[in-house]
């Protein structure tokens, strides 16, 4: 847990004092990612750097796990805080292994222990230790360097991590991959993370909470969904963008938005049964499942009505399905590309779990605005 | 911010062996002469290649052997080889000196005379031991205010010809090996300090930031990050400095310092071509050898991650 209490930083310049951070009050709960967001010069980086005292606060206090660290020795403090910067800052003179073990070595860990930890961490980010331990940073690609940069910060298992635009210098495709990888890692290691970014999409994706800064002040501190749904003022509304409701699609999974326990038919059912089921629910079509519950195809009401025979003889193939753990953005994208107004939702094994409609999606997104 | 500024200025580093500056001409003379000779030989070989155009290529070895034989025959016939050979004891003594003299000199008896290699070793090692730490010290943040000014003083110092440094040194310390060592030390010091300073201050600031952020003390940052990352540039400075040193040592004879200069200058004075070559050839070989040794050191001692040669 990180708590900032009236944290202030004033830089004295020849042109007069500049308040880079103005009485910042916030708390990052244990195990959550808090993204500090804002335009450049808004004070987000200064605020983060005060936590590990790379910038000495003018006034105010910082608590980590309940203890006031404002007056502790910065060297000991920093060794307990993982730190990742945009330029990565791997030491070119050291091998990957020595880089990862930098903090454990500072802390005087047993060599064997830290070296085996380095190998372990490399595996965590899908880099083969046999190949990479003895390499030098210049022999890695940008993405690999960034991964090593992140696990170097994790090496001494610090409870708290500070990340300064850690994925900013990576190409968009690799960035997505590394972000996903990092989120997967975070779901296991559960660090308390302060993460500086200027990219609203990255923030929405990574954050449990977002803090938006403007000219040294903390303007809004909320969950991504609340921030997108209820921006506090025009500055934030502009900053998160006119398409902010679309950005919320990312935050909701298909499972949350779908209709559960839908009606279904099997190949052996007769068409009249299918028609009866559709009319009972008021549906225009119905999903046919296989013997183990996998979504196999669909029957349209207009095709089935007045026909005789079994479902298995008349069904049409499903254009596409969507998995229940995907976010709504993918679902909508699939709908648009298949020119459908609804999609069957399946789990990882392909079992039919529910259906999702355009109407349902607009309803769930609109709900938060209607409540007001 | 000082770091950024100095990165811009970045002084001139001696990464390539630049014998451009006039004051290094003395140092480079023997070397250049040797080099131009090799160039000419290589040119001749290329010409032979062009003429031979394939058919004669298989006789390359024969051509080399013949050329070498002709050279040897000419040297023998002119009597130079014999006169060099007669001076072999002098050459060996003036090159290596005697161990007793070195120990006496190092224990404070400056009346002992150092010969060629001891002069290089004593003055060179002294310059490295003083120059590297001094350059690194200049790159410390708290020195930033004075460092640039001091570097300018050193830059001015570099423009003083080495012969003048030796003369100045003699006018203060008298004659003998002591003023020679001191003069050589000063002449050698400058490139070493300059490169150590430039190397350390051009370490990218994000490395310093990430080192600070992970909890290194300033001393740890210096020893584990800055110096290792500047090592290649530091080595380049040492290489240049010692090339200057080896090339200047013959001049030490002029202030009573000993060394192979004795044969060269006496050979010139007596118009004794053989004696002159007996001094000049070992000096040239020694310069090439020292540079070779340092190049090997640079190749193997600088960590692979920051070594552009590997």
Automatic annotation (TrEMBL), chain A:
It is an enzyme of class 7 (translocase). Its EC number is 7.6.2.9. GO terms for molecular function: ATP binding. It comes from Roseibium sediminicola. NCBIfam families: proV (TIGR01186). It catalyses: a quaternary ammonium(out) + ATP + H2O = a quaternary ammonium(in) + ADP + phosphate + H(+). Belongs to the ABC transporter superfamily. It is a peripheral membrane protein. This is Quaternary amine transport ATP-binding protein. Pfam families: ABC_tran, CBS. Transmembrane segments: none annotated. Residues 258-316 form the CBS domain. Residues 2-240 form the ABC transporter domain. It is found in: Cell inner membrane. The lineage of its organism: Bacteria, Pseudomonadati, Pseudomonadota, Alphaproteobacteria, Hyphomicrobiales. Keywords: ATP-binding, CBS domain, Cell inner membrane, Cell membrane, Membrane, Nucleotide-binding, Repeat, Transport. The complex is probably composed of two ATP-binding proteins, two transmembrane proteins and a solute-binding protein.
Automatic annotation (TrEMBL), chain B:
Keywords: Membrane, Transmembrane, Transmembrane helix, Transport. Belongs to the binding-protein-dependent transport system permease family. This is ABC transporter permease. Residues 113-294 form the ABC transmembrane type-1 domain. The lineage of its organism: Bacteria, Pseudomonadati, Pseudomonadota, Alphaproteobacteria, Hyphomicrobiales. It is a multi-pass membrane protein. Its main location: membrane. It comes from Roseibium sediminicola. PROSITE patterns: ABC_TM1. It comes from the Bacteria. It is found in: Cell membrane. The chain crosses the membrane at residues 62-85, 116-137, 149-168, 174-193, 229-253, 273-294.
């Amino acid at each position: 847990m990180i708590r900032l209490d009236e944290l202030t930083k004033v830089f004295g310049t020849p042109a007069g004092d500049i308040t880079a951070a103005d009485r910042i009050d916030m708390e990052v709960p244990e195990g959550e990612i808090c993204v500090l967001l804002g335009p450049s010069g808004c004070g987000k980086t200064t605020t983060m750097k005060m936590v590990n005292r790379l910038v000495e606060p003018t006034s105010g206090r910082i608590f980590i796990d309940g203890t006031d660290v404002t007056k502790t020795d910065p060297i000991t403090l920093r060794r307990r805080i993982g730190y990742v910067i945009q330029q990565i800052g791997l030491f070119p003179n050291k091998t990957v292994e020595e880089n990862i073990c930098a903090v454990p070595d500072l802390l005087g860990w047993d060599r064997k222990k830290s070296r085996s930890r380095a190998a372990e961490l490399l595996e965590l980010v899908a880099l083969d230790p046999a190949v990479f331990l003895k390499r030098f940073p210049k022999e890695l690609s940008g993405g690999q360097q960034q991964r090593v940069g992140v696990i170097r910060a994790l090496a001494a298992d610090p409870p708290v991590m500070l990340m300064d635009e850690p994925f900013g210098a990576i190409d968009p495709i690799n960035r997505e991959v590394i972000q996903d990888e990092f989120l997967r890692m975070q779901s296991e290691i559960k660090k308390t993370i302060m993460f500086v970014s200027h990219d609203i999409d990255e923030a929405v994706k990574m954050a449990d909470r977002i803090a938006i800064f403007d000219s040294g002040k903390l303007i809004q501190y909320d969950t991504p969904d609340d921030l997108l749904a209820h921006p506090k003022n025009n500055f934030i509304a502009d900053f998160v963008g006119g398409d902010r409701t679309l950005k919320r699609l990312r935050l909701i999974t298909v499972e949350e938005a779908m209709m559960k326990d839908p009606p279904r038919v099997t190949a052996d059912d007769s068409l009249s049964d299918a028609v009866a089921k559709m009319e009972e629910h008021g549906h225009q079509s119905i999903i046919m499942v296989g013997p183990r519950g996998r979504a196999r195809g669909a029957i349209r009401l207009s095709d089935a009505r007045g026909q005789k025979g079994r479902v298995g003889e008349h069904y049409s193939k499903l254009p596409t399905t969507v998995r229940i753990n995907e976010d709504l953005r993918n679902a909508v994208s699939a709908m648009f590309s298949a020119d459908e107004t609804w999609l069957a939702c399946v789990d990882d094994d392909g079992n039919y779990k529910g259906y999702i409609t355009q109407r349902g999606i607009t309803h769930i997104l609109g709900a938060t605005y209607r409540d007001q | 911010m000082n770091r950024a500024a100095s990165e811009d200025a970045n002084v001139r580093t001696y990464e390539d062996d630049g014998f451009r500056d006039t004051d290094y001409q003395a140092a480079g003379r023997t070397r250049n002469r040797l080099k131009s000779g090799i160039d000419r030989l290589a040119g001749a070989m290329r010409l032979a290649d062009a003429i031979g155009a394939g058919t004669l290529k298989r006789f390359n070895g024969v051509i080399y052997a013949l050329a070498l034989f002709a050279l040897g025959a000419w040297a023998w016939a002119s009597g130079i080889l014999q006169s060099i050979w007669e001076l072999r004891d002098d050459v060996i003594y003036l090159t290596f000196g005697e161990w007793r003299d070195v120990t006496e000199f190092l224990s404070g008896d400056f009346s002992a005379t150092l010969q060629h290699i001891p002069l290089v070793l004593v003055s060179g090692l002294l310059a490295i031991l003083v120059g590297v730490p001094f350059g690194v010290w200049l790159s410390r943040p708290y020195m930033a205010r004075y460092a640039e000014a001091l570097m300018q003083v050193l830059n001015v110092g570099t423009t003083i010809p080495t012969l003048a440094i030796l003369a100045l040194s003699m006018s203060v310390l008298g004659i003998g090996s002591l003023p020679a060592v001191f003069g050589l030390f000063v002449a050698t010091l400058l490139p070493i300090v300059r490169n150590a300073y430039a190397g350390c201050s051009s370490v990218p600031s994000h490395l310093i930031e990430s080192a600070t952020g992970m909890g290194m003390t300033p001393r740890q940052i210096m020893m584990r990050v800055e110096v290792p990352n500047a090592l290649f540039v530091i080595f380049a400075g040492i290489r240049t400095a010692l090339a200057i040193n080896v090339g200047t040592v013959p001049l030490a004879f002029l202030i009573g310092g000993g060394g192979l200069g004795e044969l060269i200058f006496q050979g010139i004075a007596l118009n004794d071509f053989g004696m002159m070559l007996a001094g000049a050839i070992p000096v040239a070989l020694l310069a090439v050898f020292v540079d070779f040794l340092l190049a090997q050191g640079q190749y193997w001692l600088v960590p692979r991650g920051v070594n552009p040669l590997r």
